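Example (one chain per record):
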Amino acid sequence: MGYQLGIDIGTTYTAAAVCRSSDRRWVEPETVTLGTRSATVPSVIFIAPDGSVVVGEAAERRALTDPDRVVREFKRRIGDPTPIIVGGRSWAPEDLSAQLVRWVVDRVAEREGGPAARIALTHPASWGSHKMELLVAALAAQGLTVSFIAEPQAAALHYATEERVAPGSTIAVYDLGGGTFDAAVVRKADQSDAAFGAAGFGLLGRPEGLDRLGGVDFDQVVFDHVREGLPAAFADLDDSDPGVLSAVARVRRECTEAKEALSSDTDVSIPVLLPAARGSVRLHRTEFEGLIREQVEETVEALRRAVVSAGCAPESLTAVLLVGGSSRIPLVSQLVSEGLGRPVAVDTDPKNAIAKGAALSVSPKPTASWPEVAIPLVAAAKAPAWAGSTADGSSAQARLTRAAGSGAGSG
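Predicted structure:
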């Protein structure tokens, strides 16, 4: 059975999903496990001295010993004419993104036993033609043929089915990812909306976004809380010692896991194992929510601007969809619901919803109705180097020509 591949290249993490169909039988999109510890992989690239490329978790490991050869957050640089210098060599941001896409395509093909019949790649709704053309050319150099779909369209396509969302319905999409926030309003196609094409949803108004606000900022909030709780453990750390950097990286991972645990637990204990001291720091959900409330309120205001730009009153929205890993934070659904006066729909797998929608966008549509996607509803409510930093229309078909002799290394 052939498969269709959807890829969501995020600022901090990359996800992929496949969809299989044959004989008019539709199979729900399936997340592809790209990493060894999780389905997603870091959107990180390591450039070796010989010019070969290492991606994802392997690149993160190399960063501990050779951080100057690691590149992060290059997606947000697409369109910037200033190249990224790594190891004395210039790289265009779109070329790095294309390398990552190539790696994902090859990894999935190895897992599935062959290449995808079709590939869809997501992009921010706010991207213009210039950024798209740059990425098209970079993908062509990697020998790839893909379709493009805007991230909120992919999210809506995954969440909604023909039975659940009537033609002409409007949906606000709130996407709080690892490094950025995006908001947009989409409309379900009806007979007069043929231009919406395979996506099934068209963008309304002007998308809104916050380029430097996402889950990594919340991770940093937790890390700063830990530093304040155990200041002696972080005193006089040697930035040049790989062992120290590795230990701090472990603490950061514990902070990320603590943040995620607070979506279901009311408090967590964060272990700290550093050369200078060992211990743990407790963090209660109410403390965490107080630390991030102002940032979450910024995202709600951006969502409200997107709704106004679309010419919609909040009460006219069919649904408010929350996607992105950080959308699982209880404070997010609470403030979004309060801000718009509407119930919100939260997917059980928000990290991978956009990749799944992308896979659906290039899948053959059977004559039978698709199965409904379950959408739980939440009712509407009345420094030093080691310290790091916070995160600073229709599916457009792009037929790309295979370029001879191109490819991407992996590791």
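Caption: The radius of gyration is 21 Å.
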